[in-house]
Amino acid sequence: MMTVFHLRDLANGNRNKIKCEDVKVFHLPHYEGLTIADMLEFAQPWPIVAQSLPAIRREVLKLHRDYVSSVIYTLVGNPFNDWV
Fold first, then answer.
1. Who contacts 29 (Cβ-Cβ below 8 Å, separation ≥6)?
2. DSSP line for 1-68
3. How high does pLDDT run on average in the chain?
């Protein structure tokens, strides 16, 4: 669920936009230890990931797992795939 606040931040240039042609879709299996919080913890060394997601953590936790995993996979690539 995308909020109007995140969309506003994207439109104003306050958050990183990912172009459609650059998106790599990643379907995350439902295994223990692969929650959104776990993925965000993995992605901490890449600040571009946090800059591409909503600024408020509770909004990020409401997003669909496949959306978050696709954003991370698009920006991080194979290290994320290997971690999963």
1. 84
2. ---HHHHHHHHHTSS----GGG---------TT-SHHHHHHHTTT-HHHHHHS-SSHHHHHHS-HHHH
3. 92
pLDDT digits (tens, 9 = 90+) for 4-60: 888 888 889 889 999 999 999 999 888 888 999 999 999 999 999 999 999 988 999
pTM of the model: 0.90
Tokens (6 digits) for 77: 């690539």
φ and ψ at residue 43, rounded to 5 degrees: -85, 0
**How many domains would you assign to the chain?**
1
- Domain with 63, as residue range(s), is 4-83
